[in-house]
Each structure stands twice: as structure tokens, then as C-alpha cells.
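Check the record.
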Amino acid sequence: MLLWEFHLHSTINFTAQRSKMASTMMLLGYVQQNAIIISYYLLSAFFSYWFARKIYHCFKPGLRELPGPKIASWTRLWRVWAVLSGNYPVKFRQLHEKHGKLVRVGPNHISVADPAAIPKIYGFNNKYLKSDFYHAFQAPYKGRIVDNLFATQSTEFHKSQRSQVAHRFSMSSLAEMQSSVDGCTKILLDKLRGFADKQEVVDIGPWLQWYAFDVIGAITFSQRFGCLESGSDVGGLISGIEDTLKYVGVVGQLPELHPWLIGNAKLITTIQKLFPDVSPVPNIIKIIENQIKKYDLEGKYYQSKKEDFLAYYMGDSVTGKIRLDHDDLVGHCLGSVFAGSDTTAIALRAIFYYLLKNPRVYAKLMTEIDSGISAGHVSEMATLDNSMKMPYLQACMKEGMRLHPIVGQVLERCVPKGGDFLSGHYLPEGTVVGIHAWVIHHDPSIFGEDHEDFRPERWIENSAEKLKNMEKCFLAFGAGSRLEWAYPEKDWKLETVWFTKQTDLFVRLKARQKANGTP
């Protein structure tokens, strides 16, 4: 009896399995026979959903009535095109001149040109969080994608990371790095004097870039990259960083692509094994990690007389400052190199350019410097404290960065939950908004009708209230030889992807007399 029941049970199971297999085979056969039809319906469903979302975003309440390029309300590809054109700031200035304070520049993106919106969008403790654009700034490290101070969308993470480094960026703390900067300055001046002695025309742009890069290396981990000495981009690190920022500028418009590209840790790890020089990041990380090991071996930690960032981050058991963990040490130093070198170089090139293009301002600045040297409150190798005592120099620097802000794109934020009013217009929650420095820096209501002119006096002569408003709307960040523009009939070239970089700053250098009359 038991044998019969077992046999019956086995037969039923076998029959059921055959039936299930037959059903599966029939289904597979049906799919194979009707593959084209099924694919058609699936693709139709996908494109119907995609098109419905496009329609929704295009006619989304709160956005549909705002002006802007028609194609931009349908697709973010308009923004990609604007970036690739290299004239992103120019296009945004033209749009706001034509359409006013609010311009729709994407299906869910609004560019704002209203000074009153600055504290609301970018102020401390506001609810406007960073958009997904910043995902493109996240890079792989140790086989995973890591967040960082600039890219993070987490307010808690940002607060934690910022608290680790904020004190090191105070004026008193920065003054400790003077000797590291002076070393680079001396090398640069020697190189420029060499050009002056030979009466050579030189493109000063790359030299300012190499100077900035070596300075950042010196103040971050007490090691110059050697660009000034060699007169070149050592190891292609600078061009590699520029390529990375170009990637960010483009892919940031379509951030969902990032996890499939540089944001894919496994993919990048494989590519770097096959092509070691494809990215500068691993090489810069290797330099940082070698310096960490060196500091550990030397027992070199932060002391009151030690000036570089790395030593500060490594802490000191004597003073009670806690050492950051290894990943944070690498992350903050890497951030200094990436964020500090290009921004500094662009600011320097802008200041030099506008001084050379405006002889009146140049002469007035040199008079202030010479007077300071003669009076004894400015040293020949000017210090940070010296520069703070020269108001016209400070005004020249601000005016150069006003006319040429470093970042050439909008710093995006998201409208918080519940929506909000900007420039008197209601925008639904999740709308991506931002203010373009190149637009706001040319607002005549803030900087005057002569906003196109390089006039440093505007930072000195205006009333306290006017100056306060100008400072609030200033969104830029951040003695040896006499220079003159080599080719007056030519101008520099500008290209914007993420930063707005300048090229072709050809100058002719001549030895000038010091304040005491010596060469």
C-alpha cells in the first residue's frame, strides 16, 4: 500500500513537472514567435511614459508660464549644448537681459537674477539643498564612491566635514602659511625677470597656473609639484584636473549618467588598471598618502609654527587636537588641490588682465604699493597683513573677480518642501534654482550703470549701505617686474565648462624701478 502511494505521488509530481515544463516551453515559443510584437508594445509603453513625463514637466504649474528657450522646457540637452558651446555665461546674461529675473533653462530648472533671492537660496541654515548636479563631483576611492564637503547633499555630513577644517581657513591661520607662499613667489619672480632680461613676449597665463598649483601643494602638504621649476605641467596633473572638471560640467547636466561613468567604482578601477594615466586623481592621492606616511615616520604633527593643512588635520596629542581618520585626511587634501589650484589661477589671470588693459588703474595701484614700501608698512615680499593695509589693491582684486567670476555655471539648489516664492513667483518643491555670478555681477542696480567697466573705486567710494549690498552680491568664489599687454589688437580667449578659464595672456615684461629708485 505504501509502495503504491509512493508510486502514485511520484507519478503526480512528474506529471506536474512535465506540465509546468510544457507551459514554460509554450510561453517561450510564444515569445519567440511574437518577439517583434512584444518588443513593439514594450517600447511603446516606455516611450509613452517618457513622453507623458515630458509633457508634465513642460507644462508643470509654476514653471510653464516662465520665459526661456522653448527647447529648454522639453529637454536638458539645451543645457548640455550651452556648456559645450563654451559660452555658458554669455548665454545666461543674454537670457536674463531679454526675459528678466526668472528664466526657465530646463524642464525643472530656473535661473534667478534677483539679489533678494541670494540669502534665501544660499544663506546659512536655509532649506535649499544642493541638486543632483553635484553627484558628478563624487569620485572613487578604495573601490567605492565617496562623498565630500563640496558634493554632499547631506547637511549633517557637510556640517561635520566643515567643522574639521573651518578654523584652518581663518585669516590668522592662513597667515601661518606665508613662508610657503613666499617660496613659490620667489621662483615665479626669478622666471619673470629672466623673460624681462631677454625682452621676450610670454604667455603669463600658464605661469600663473603653475604658480597656483605649486602654492597649493606647498600649503597643503609642504611639497611643490615642481611646475615652476620645470616651466611645465608636471605629470599632466593640471590638464587632468581640467579634463575632470570638463566632465563635471557636462555630466552634471545629466547626473543620472554619472553612476555609469566615473561614478562607477568598478568600471573606473578597471580602466585605471588598464590606463594608469587616464585620471590625475590616483596620482594626487598617491602623493598625499606618501606625505601622510612621511609625517607619521617623522612624528610631524601640527604645532603653532607648522603651517601646512595636512599637519593641521593630523592633530597633536600635546595640544589635544584630534587626528582625522585616513579617508578624511586624503579627502580634505584632495579637495584643496582640486578646488584651490584652478580657482586661484583664474582669479590671478583676471586681475592681471584687467590691470594690464587699464593703464590708469595699473599706475594708481603701483603708486599705492610704492608709497607703502617707502613708508615701511609694506615689505618687498608683501605679506597677507601688508595686503590688507592696501585698500586699492583689495579693490582691484575684487573688481577683477567681479568682472570674471571663477565659476561659469549656476550653483544649483532645490526648492524645499511645500514650494517657495522667488521674485514674487511661486515655484513648486523640487524645482532646481540657482543664481549665475556672471549675471548678478552685471546688475546695474547693484554695481552701477558702469558695471561693464573695470573701476576698482566702486569698492571704496560708495556708501556703507551700498558696499554692504555689493558684498552680499559678490559671488566670485574667491613688485618685481613691470608688465604691458604684448598685442593690444588681440584679446584673451575664454572657455566655460565648469570654471571659466582664460588663455592667451601674452605680455611683455620690463624691469621697473623700486620706490627707492633702484631697479
About this structure: The first helix runs from residue 2 to 33. Residues 138-406+481-511 form a domain with the Cytochrome p450 fold (CATH 1.10.630.10).
